[in-house]
Amino acid sequence: MSDALSEAPALPVTFRPRRTRAVLLATGAAMFVVITAVALILERLHPGERMSFVLTAALFYGVLILLSRPKVVADEDGVTVVNLTRSRRLAWAEIVRVNLRVGDPWVFLDLSDGTSLPALGIQPGIGKAQAIRDARALRALAETRGSGAELR
User: For the whole model, what pTM was predicted?
Assistant: First the structure.
């Protein structure tokens, strides 16, 4: 337990895949600018066609913004897991275990009701070392604040 205390970060703390988020947002912005520029440069396009180019670019950018949304926010009262389209608030006592196994696309939280919740805010992707550090930090917080320590 003292090992978990030494790894636990100060609260509140937000975990998110920073590199993946930066790549998604930069790519989306660049795509939007390029597609919009093409729509404005092409002389043969009618205003409606230009608008469809811009709306398509905005749609692509919106999807990439949605993909960059996941995060895990830990505070004194519990954890908020923000995935692509949903958010869920958990009390520390609800988290039994924090798992990031080899080959997992993201962290999974084993919950006291017997279910498992994916936490896309911690994913190995292009930031594997950071994801491992974040998973260990969240595990340490869950062990020191939640039910994980008693149920092991």
Answer: 0.81
For 69-125, the pLDDT digits (tens) are: 999 999 999 999 999 999 999 999 999 999 999 889 999 999 999 999 999 999 988
111 vs 126: CA distance, rounded Å:
27
Amino acid at site 5: L
Cα 85 to chain centroid distance, Å, stands at 11
**Residues 39 and 90: beta-carbon distance below 8 Å:** no
Structure-token match 């919950």, residue found: 111
Q: Kind and range of the H or E element at 31?
A: helix 18-41
Residues 6+ apart with CB under 8 A from 81: 72, 87, 88, 90, 109, 117, 119, 121
**CB count in 10 Å sphere of residue 32:** 19
